[in-house]
């Protein structure tokens, strides 16, 4: 109700099925890039070329780039607010690219300042949840205010491993994207698969891809992720590999088909507990001993 | 079922016999005949369970009212009663019908020695028609002749009576039906015609299906005609000033329904104040005034005659009803949205009625009726349908019936206070402005999640497993740089691209080709996504024929299992033979599955064998395993099919176990009396309580050492079966 009230004043929008709003989430985790097989400069060159080609496909297309750092996230590029300066800067690169790189550099500097000098053993994760939320907010703003009603999608270029502490936030963002029908495409550049992005793409109907040939990244991007959502329906894109939704229990990390679930926080357990280990809720007793005995017999899988 | 029935009847040994007069008394489980002549030998007391069926003579004017209770055909004969009149006979017939239905279960098991004789079961025509109806539901059609053959083969011999053939022709089923080859029919053909199951057995598990259909067949009621009563046109002969109206009961009914004021007036005036004829005269006069569009004249006449005014003025009842309806409109309905469609300021917006355009004269507004009003009212009445069910003969009765039905309606509405409350709640919910509401402090406890990492861990392992990635490999990448160094190198990369610019070409052609090839292969290979998308069943990718065959076998197996478990526990030889028959039929399906597996293309062979393999190899699975796999059954197909092999294994084991027990129990038919208590308990929970139950306690420990079966029970073997498997026949037992 609240939403319709806000959306109502927009008089008329240009609805078109082939205009895309592409929000790219760029992983700028320095720890990841210092170990990655593909140098960041090469990566940027692929990505910039890809962004350019998106803008060329349809002149109404819009590209927004959000940098996903270790400590912060920020917008580093928005094609709708690029200064109208078409001349090539130092002859090597279009204005939009140098613009983006400038912002990126500023962002990295800012991100570094925020970092606490704690030496983690691993690479550490980047703030995927933050950048996802920013992307979704941006898309909502475009929906509600802009003169255009483009077909939005989010492309995550992710290299760092998933951050388990972000689980709840990331899942919330994913469900929010699903609700507003924004597909989340993911292209995983890192060494290992990302469970977050796999779920995100699966749930929102996006494409999950982990390129094997990183030096051909542009080819992957332009082949798989460049088409607008309307054309996608006619293409055979890499099928989203199914997600194994079976969960493992919180107590023993066993994969289970049936188990007990905390009604408050949805934690999964393979056995009946008196108290939820995640949220501390105290579970009541089953109605009668006889019933609970047979129930348990039936429900608890043998471990 | 009411307790008993007592009727005068004559007992006859044959139809032509004059019979013995007496009293027939029927109770729930037996019937007793007591002749009036106490010396007569025709006195008997028979239990219903020995009765196999009943026949009765058709109701006719001078034919006797006969009821024939047939006994086992082996013993021959039956009990023929002649009643004094048909009503008496009907009462008894119904009672017998119910009693027999109750005993049919028991008699099925009870006819151990004559299991085959079950075919004698006499079915009511209704039930048979329902069976036929069930069999021909669904849409795949098969030539009609085939239907006939199937009918004759599948149904007629079982009843063996010409009555049924006649009934078929009577009700026109045989000639009209298009035989539809439904799933049910396939199963019926497969199992009943091949002798795996008897007709009665096949239908026994579908009693509910049969019952469900009856409730749906209700009499269709005729609604109002959609023609308007404006068709009631005055007829003039042209010469005199005489005007004729034709009123039929149908029209009168419609007038009453559409014009509550006329209806009210009729109830008030007729016959106290005026005769019916006068009433309709007045009504027609009013109608005539409307026709002439002479509102001035109408107003003048109404002023003179107050009864006439009733017909001419606007209908108050209608108006109040309309107001009530408007009040009931959903408050959230946006009336403004339709504002553009409003023609209210243009009455009739130029519609010509009866050839002349209506003129507006505000002074006589109340004597004017618009076409749109009439149309709306008529539409409303037609949509409401015809609420009364009386003969349209007498106007007075029609009027009263209509009034009564309206009162009922009104009462219903009043008593339906919850609707009003709901509406009010809805209004307050919808009109509420969030910002102005006081904060709702519902008692809540903040959710405090200690470590959200748990959620991730519980998912990640599986998710990555699906992608063929191992967690172990991922954790090894270590970053030796300090954050300062790391950020430095990142900035270095950025400045590098700034100075060098975009690489040219971005992608080397050979690499691009490699990537493209990789992607294309990836997409086309089935290996990549097969079975990984839970929304896509493996079955969907199989050729349609194979899929259908597999599904058909699957339903067959389900059907066999259903019958198997419904005959559980196997306490009689009859049930044992039935179960073995079912098991044999089941085992015949396996070679067929193997055949399917071999026939499919190599692309799918792996998939099919994945589906079929469990059925073929899991015979040795333990019962425990079976119990565990049961809850997993779902539409996915794979898992469901997986448990079939174990089903067969379970069937075999049960049969093995039961066989020696049955043989033993036969010799000890008359076991000691101590068991009766347990037997009663067993029967209480037993769906198909039998005539010769094996005496063993279902509650372990109570009579442990009485028979070998008790020992078995103690071992928990049979109980293990009953717990996990009888769920299929809806058992819930506490152990």
UniProtKB/TrEMBL annotation, chain A:
Identify the InterPro entries for this entry: TFIIH_Tfb4/GTF2H3 (IPR004600), vWFA_dom_sf (IPR036465)
Sorted alphabetically, which keywords does the UniProt record give? DNA damage, DNA repair, Metal-binding, Nucleus, Transcription, Transcription regulation, Zinc, Zinc-finger
Q: Which Pfam families does the UniProt entry name for this protein?
A: Tfb4
Q: What's the domain of life for this entry? A: Eukaryota
Q: Where in the cell is it found?
A: Nucleus
Would the keyword Membrane be found if you checked this record's keyword annotation? no
Task: Tell me, in one coarse class, where this protein mainly resides.
Answer: nucleus
- Described purpose of this protein according to its UniProt entry: Component of the general transcription and DNA repair factor IIH (TFIIH) core complex, which is involved in general and transcription-coupled nucleotide excision repair (NER) of damaged DNA and, when complexed to CAK, in RNA transcription by RNA polymerase II. In NER, TFIIH acts by opening DNA around the lesion to allow the excision of the damaged oligonucleotide and its replacement by a new DNA fragment. In transcription, TFIIH has an essential role in transcription initiation.
Subunit (UniProt): Component of the 7-subunit TFIIH core complex composed of XPB, XPD, TFB1/GTF2H1, GTF2H2/P44, TFB4/GTF2H3, TFB2/GTF2H4 and TFB5/GTF2H5, which is active in NER. The core complex associates with the 3-subunit CDK-activating kinase (CAK) module composed of CYCH1/cyclin H1, CDKD and MAT1/At4g30820 to form the 10-subunit holoenzyme (holo-TFIIH) active in transcription.
Q: Which family does it belong to?
A: Belongs to the TFB4 family.
Protein name, as recorded: General transcription and DNA repair factor IIH subunit TFB4
The species this protein was found in: Vitis vinifera
UniProtKB/TrEMBL annotation, chain B:
Record's subcellular location: Nucleus
Q: Where does the record place the BSD domain?
A: 239-291
List GO BP terms, alphabetically.
DNA-templated transcription; nucleotide-excision repair
Q: PROSITE patterns under this entry?
A: BSD (PS50858)
Kindly indicate whether the keyword Mitochondrion belongs to this entry.
Answer: no
Name the Pfam families for this protein. Answer: BSD, PH_TFIIH
Please give the residue ranges the record annotates as the region Disordered. 619-643
Q: Which UniProt keywords apply?
A: Nucleus, Repeat, Transcription, Transcription regulation
Q: Which SUPFAM superfamilies match?
A: BSD domain-like (SSF140383), PH domain-like (SSF50729)
Q: Does the keyword Transcription regulation apply?
A: yes
Q: Which GO terms describe its cellular component?
A: transcription factor TFIIH core complex
* Family of this protein: Belongs to the TFB1 family.
Identification of the protein by name: BSD domain-containing protein
**Organism of provenance:** Vitis vinifera
């Amino acid at each position: 109700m609240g939403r319709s009230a806000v959306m109502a004043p927009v008089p008329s929008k240009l609805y078109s099925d082939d205009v895309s709003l592409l929000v790219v989430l760029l992983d700028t985790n320095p720890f990841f890039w210092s170990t990655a097989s593909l140098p960041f400069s090469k990566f940027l060159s692929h990505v910039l070329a890809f962004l350019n080609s998106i803008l060329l496909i349809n002149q109404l297309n819009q590209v927004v780039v959000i940098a996903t750092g270790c400590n912060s996230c920020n917008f580093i590029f928005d094609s709708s607010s690029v200064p109208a300066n078409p001349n090539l800067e130092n002859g090597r690169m279009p204005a939009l690219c140098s613009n983006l790189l400038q912002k990126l550099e500023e962002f990295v500097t800012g991100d570094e300042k925020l970092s606490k000098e704690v030496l983690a053993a691993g690479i550490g994760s980047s703030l995927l949840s933050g950048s996802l939320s920013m992307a979704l907010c941006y898309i909502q703003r475009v929906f509600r205010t802009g003169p255009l009603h483009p077909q939005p999608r989010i492309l995550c270029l992710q290299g760092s491993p998933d951050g388990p502490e972000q689980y709840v936030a990331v899942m919330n963002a994913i469900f929010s994207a699903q609700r507003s029908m924004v597909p989340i495409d993911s292209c995983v550049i890192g060494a290992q698969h990302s469970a977050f992005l796999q779920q995100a793409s699966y749930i929102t109907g996006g494409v999950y891809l982990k390129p094997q040939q990183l030096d051909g990244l542009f080819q992957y991007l332009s082949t798989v992720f460049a088409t607008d959502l309307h054309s996608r329906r006619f293409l055979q894109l890499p099928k989203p590999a199914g997600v194994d939704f079976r969960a493992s229990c919180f107590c023993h990390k066993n994969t289970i088909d049936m188990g007990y679930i905390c009604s408050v926080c949805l934690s999964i357990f393979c056995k009946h507990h008196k108290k939820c280990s995640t949220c501390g809720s105290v579970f009541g007793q089953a109605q009668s001993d006889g019933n609970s005995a047979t129930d348990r017999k039936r429900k608890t899988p043998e471990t | 079922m009411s307790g008993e029935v007592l009727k005068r009847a004559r007992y006859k040994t044959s139809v032509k016999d004059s019979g013995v007069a007496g009293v027939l008394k029927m109770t729930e489980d037996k019937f007793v005949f007591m002749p009036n002549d106490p010396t007569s030998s025709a006195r008997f007391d028979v239990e219903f369970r020995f009765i196999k069926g009943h026949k009765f003579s058709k109701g006719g004017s001078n034919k006797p009212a006969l009821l024939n209770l047939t006994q086992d055909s082996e013993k021959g004969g039956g009990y023929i009663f002649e009643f004094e009149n048909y009503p008496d006979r009907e009462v008894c017939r119904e009672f017998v019908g119910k009693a027999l239905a109750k005993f049919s279960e028991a008699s099925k098991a009870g006819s151990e020695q004559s299991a085959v004789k079950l075919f004698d079961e006499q079915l009511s025509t209704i039930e048979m028609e329902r069976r036929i109806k069930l069999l021909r539901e669904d849409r795949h059609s098969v030539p009609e002749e085939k239907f006939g053959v199937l009918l004759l083969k599948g149904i007629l011999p079982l009843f063996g009576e010409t009555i049924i053939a006649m009934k078929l022709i009577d009700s026109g089923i045989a000639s009209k039906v298009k035989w539809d080859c439904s799933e049910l029919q396939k199963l019926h053909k497969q199992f009943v015609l091949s002798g795996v199951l008897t007709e009665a057995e096949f239908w026994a598990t579908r009693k509910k299906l049969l019952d469900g259909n009856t409730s749906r067949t209700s009499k269709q009621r005729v609604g109002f005609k959609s023609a308007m009563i404006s068709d009631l046109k005055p007829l003039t002969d042209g010469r005199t000033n005489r005007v004729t109206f034709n009123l039929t009961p149908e029209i009168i009914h419609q007038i009453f329904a559409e014009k509550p004021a006329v209806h009210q007036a009729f109830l008030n005036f007729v016959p106290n104040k005026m005769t019916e004829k006068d009433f309709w005269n007045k009504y027609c006069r009013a109608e005539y005034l409307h026709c002439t569009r002479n509102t001035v004249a109408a107003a003048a006449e109404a002023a003179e005659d107050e009864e006439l005014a009733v017909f001419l003025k606007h209908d108050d009842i209608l108006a109040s009803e309309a107001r009530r309806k408007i009040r009931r409109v959903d408050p959230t309905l946006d009336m403004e949205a339709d504002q553009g469609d409003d023609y209210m300021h243009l009455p009739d917006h130029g519609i010509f009625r009866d050839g002349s355009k209506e003129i507006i004269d505000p002074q006589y507004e109340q004597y004017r009726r618009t076409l749109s009003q009439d149309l709306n009212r008529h539409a409303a009445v037609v949509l409401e349908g015809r609420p009364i069910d009386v003969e349209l003969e007498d106007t007075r009765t029609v009027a009263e019936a209509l009034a009564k039905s309206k009162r009922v309606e009104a009462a219903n509405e009043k008593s339906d206070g919850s609707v009003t409350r709901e509406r009010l709640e809805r209004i307050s919910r919808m009109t509420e402005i969030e910002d102005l509401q006081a904060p709702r402090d519902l008692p809540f406890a903040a959710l405090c999640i200690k470590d959200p990492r748990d959620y991730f861990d519980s998912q990640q392992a599986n998710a990555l497993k699906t992608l063929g990635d191992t967690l172990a490999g991922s954790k090894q990448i270590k970053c030796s740089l300090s954050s300062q160094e790391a950020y430095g190198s990142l900035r270095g990369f950025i400045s590098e691209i700034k100075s060098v610019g975009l690489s040219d070409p971005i992608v080397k052609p050979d690499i691009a080709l490699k990537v493209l090839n990789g992607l294309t292969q990836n997409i086309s290979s089935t290996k990549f996504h097969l079975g990984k998308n839970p929304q896509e069943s493996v079955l969907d990718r199989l050729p349609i024929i194979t899929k259908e065959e597999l599904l058909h076998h699957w339903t067959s197996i389900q059907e066999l299992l259903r019958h198997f478990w419904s005959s559980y526990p196997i306490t009689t030889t009859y049930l044992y033979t039935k179960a073995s028959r079912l098991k044999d039929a089941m085992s015949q399906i396996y070679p067929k599955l193997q055949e399917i597996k071999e026939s499919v293309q190599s692309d799918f062979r792996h998939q099919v064998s994945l589906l079929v393999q469990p059925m073929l190899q899991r015979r040795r699975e333990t019962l425990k395993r079976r119990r565990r796999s049961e809850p997993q059954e779902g539409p996915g197909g794979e898992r469901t099919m997986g448990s079939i092999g174990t089903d067969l294994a379970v069937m075999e084991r049960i049969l093995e176990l039961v066989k020696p027990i049955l043989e033993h129990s036969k010799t000890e038919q008359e076991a000691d009396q101590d068991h009766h208590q347990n037997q009663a308990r067993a029967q209480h929970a037993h769906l198909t309580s039998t005539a010769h139950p094996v005496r063993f306690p279902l509650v372990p420990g109570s009579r442990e050492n009485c028979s070998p079966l008790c020992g078995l029970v103690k071992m928990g073997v049979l109980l293990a079966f009953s717990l996990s498997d009888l769920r299929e026949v809806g058992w819930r037992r506490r152990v």
